[in-house]
Specification:
Helix content: 40-55%
Strand order of the largest sheet: 1-2
Distance between the termini: 78 Å
Oligomer: single chain
Number of helices: 5
Structural class: mainly alpha
Order of helices and strands: EHHEHHH
Radius of gyration: 29 Å
Shape: elongated
Largest sheet: 2 strands, parallel
């Protein structure tokens, strides 16, 4: 970061979030962090801009997305039959 010519910006919202969760022992580190960065100039005009264009260059990947498909046991007649047959020995033992 120190060798780059590009400025690293932070928003006032980031400041509020970090200070809200900071412990007293972290105050000095936060002060030093924000001294090294530049606060983004945000006002009402910036807030009204169409930020939909901002997300378009961000690629979307299916990595890490979990899908779960459930099936009713009645849709699987063989599995349903086996599970029902497994209950017969338990019933037989309880009967005696």
């Amino acid at each position: 970061m120190s060798t780059s010519a590009a400025a690293v910006l932070y928003s006032p919202v980031s400041v509020a979030e970090l200070w809200a969760g900071a412990r007293p022992s972290e105050y000095d580190a936060l002060r030093n962090l924000f001294r090294a960065l530049t606060c983004a100039p945000i006002d009402e005009e910036v807030g009204r801009q169409d930020l939909g264009k901002l997300a378009s260059p961000i690629p979307f990947s299916e990595a890490g997305v979990t899908t779960r498909e459930t099936k009713d046991l009645r849709d699987l007649p063989l599995v349903s039959l086996v599970l029902r047959l497994l209950r017969i020995p338990a019933w037989w033992v309880r009967r005696k």
